[in-house]
Amino acid sequence: MRAPAGLLLLSVLLLRAAPGRAAAADGDFAGAPIWIADANGQRFRVRFDPGERLIVATGAEASASDLGTPGFAVEVGLLLRDDRPAPGWDVHWKRNHEIAHLRLRPGAATRGAAIDGALYRGIFLRQSREGTLTLPLSPPIALPLPFDVGVLVEVGHLHGALWPEASDASHPVDAAVEAGIFHGEVLADFWRSRQPGRWLTLGVGGRYEIGLRRDEAGALLRDHRVSPMSTLALAFHGERADGLAAGGVRAEAGHRWSSARGWERAYRVDADIEVTPLAVNDRPLALFAIATADTGPDLPRPELRVMAGVRISQPLR
Hints:
The chain is mainly beta. The protein has a single domain (2-315), classed as Outer membrane phospholipase (ompla), Chain C (Beta Barrel). 4% of the residues lie in helices and 59% in strands. It has one helix spanning 2-15; strands at 35-37, 43-45, 53-63, 71-81, 91-105, 114-128, 132-135, 141-144, 148-161, 177-189, 199-214, 220-239, 245-258, 262-280, 283-295, 303-315. The strands form three sheets. The protein has a twelve-stranded antiparallel β-barrel. A two-stranded antiparallel ribbon has the order 1-2. A two-stranded antiparallel sheet has the order 7-8. A hairpin with a 2-residue loop joins strand 14 and strand 15. The protein is flat and about 65 Å long.
């Protein structure tokens, strides 16, 4: 678990860095320039939106079982989010969408092709300037809340081999497939930041997923896993006002029912960080790292996966 913790610390330090008013107060981001001109009148971009772009990335990926032999991997995805709050707003929804955000590892001599990511993932946070919850009584009662509310929705999460293969003693995890059908959470956002890309949420939710693998004889085994609103998750995500640095960490603990093993507990930690040192033709070129650690009765041992590389984006606004 040291890698996700280190990425979280580095992301916090970068987000608090001074250059470019990185730690701009809520509301300051709206007036920050997107384009500036040099002495010759040539315009170039100095501010980017990490939540509104098409991304393509390449890098190296490795797991704890083979850190000495990382493999080549690529990443693709479409990220969308809503406009910033209009002046004089009372209620505003922060919407963040990830569409077909996937990491792919082509097959290698010792490991087969693998995939990790989701077909769709959305975070919806409702912000109220008053910060109250109204009870429809007579007369109505407004209760002050120390947090904003929201939901997380994820459909089509994929992890593991592109197709289940016969068990491999050296890489048993890589031979299995985890297909997440649906995952949903009710969120409380304690940061309540008006800045896009910033939240500190506590979520309670449930999910349904299917694990597929083959035994040594090649027979396909299915494991249906259901978490009936028994998943607890804490997530932090931060972002510089100019979009040149972003990162976050998410820790999840779940109590689920498995058709193969009965009731069990599973834990997962995800962390990521991205820093943009330059832009090529006004397209940001970023360095990034992603780490995932998870453990559960379906895994022979705790699993740690790390990917690091270069990400280029096509801004959509």
